[in-house]
Amino acid sequence: MESTDSLTSSLQPNLPPGFRFHPTDEELVVHYLKKKASSAPLPVSIIAEVDLYKFDPWELPAKATFGEQEWYFFSTRDRKYPNGARPNRAATSGYWKVTGTDKPVLTSGGTQKVGVKKALVFYGGKPPKGIKTNWIMHEYRLADNKINNKPPGCDLGNKKNSLRLDDWVLCRIYKKSNTNRPLEHDKDDSLDNMLGTVPPSISIGSHHDAKFQFSTKGTSAHCLKLENIAC
């Protein structure tokens, strides 16, 4: 269902041989998103305009103008609630969940903030019991909200109850190639959950006949105190 083979669009731009599109975060914001928001000409018509949340992530490569391992899109966002600014991130068969904190996009000299980068992961199903997938989104938005970046035909002044947010975002979509890690459920890990999933413990005796239990998680060993003996 999530195969990306042969999903690239047939509408490829007319680009020179050997062209690769690997822009930096700053280039995406300054040369593409900012120009799109102000209706200025883009350097090249290589980023498709798609309503991302109407599709599942594995459907998006076929909607892209260009790309093989990662795909770029301009998208608008709808409000989750009529009177709020929180975006609705529900898709066809799942939802995008924010992970980590927003990161500023700075100019090459690091002196000016031009945008904000947000990372999201796609979960299949419905919250809070969604299943984590390997599909990742990087969402870029402008740091300066003074630019009039309404989508064409979107007159929020006459539509007070409109669910459409008034900003363009630029999104990078890719699938993380980590097939060894099992998919996770969308729930916070607790101590009970972690202890309930570790392998059978190993008891080890010491000089003082103290007993310890060890379990491995990743590359580190966690020592659990028994019989009031400090680790």
UniProtKB/TrEMBL annotation:
Signal peptide start and end residues: none
- Domain of life assignment: Eukaryota
Where, per UniProt, does this protein localize? Nucleus
GO cellular component annotations of the record? nucleus
Tell me a Gene Ontology molecular-function term this record carries.
Answer: sequence-specific DNA binding
Which InterPro entries did the record assign? NAC-dom, NAC_dom_sf
**Which coarse location class describes where this protein primarily resides?**
nucleus
Tell me which UniProt keywords the record has, alphabetically: DNA-binding, Nucleus, Transcription, Transcription regulation
Record-level GO BP terms: regulation of DNA-templated transcription; seed development
Q: Which Pfam families match?
A: NAM
Where does the NAC domain start and stop, copy by copy? 15-176
Indicate what this protein is called per its UniProt record: ONAC010 protein
Q: Which organism is it from?
A: Hibiscus syriacus (Rose of Sharon)
